[in-house]
Amino acid sequence: MKPINQTKITFPSRSSNEAFARGAVAAFVAQLDPTVDELADIKTAVSEAVTNCIVHAYPGTIGNVYITVSIFEDGRVRLRIADKGVGIADVQAAMQPMSTTGGAERAGLGFTVMQTFMDTLRVRSTPGKGTVVTMGKTIARRC
Questions:
Q1: Which of 7, 66, 68, 94 suits a disulfide with 82, CB 3.0-4.6 Å?
Q2: Could you read off the pLDDT of 64-87 as tens digits, one per residue?
Q3: Which residues are catalytic?
Q4: Is the pLDDT of residue 4 over 90?
Q5: Rounded Cα distance, 51 and 38, in Å
Q6: For the chain, which domains are there?
């Protein structure tokens, strides 16, 4: 099924851009008239995915973060957040709670948070080439 609306955003992996990403996605999704809770779920998941790009994909350097937000007629929202960073060698292990490459100051809960707040989560990664996180959530229609 083709999206009825879509936007793409690219920005440098600076921590100051995490709030921008969260706000931009929320503003785009607002056209579906989500509840405050639905919007908060999406913003939280975007925040986690973008933070993963900033902290893990480009350690010690700056690269680009790519976000595609697609809206479908049935109220589904698909978020694709990608980087061209270092990639993840073992995606299954990385998705386990408490798994982190970010040191003691990181909780290792990013993927767990994304799974909790979104309906679907898929992670694809190739070491040395980057990671793509695809998440989905259906916004309930209120008539």
A1: 66
A2: 999 999 999 999 999 999 999 999
A3: 48, 52, 106
A4: yes
A5: 20
A6: 5-138 (3.30.565.10)
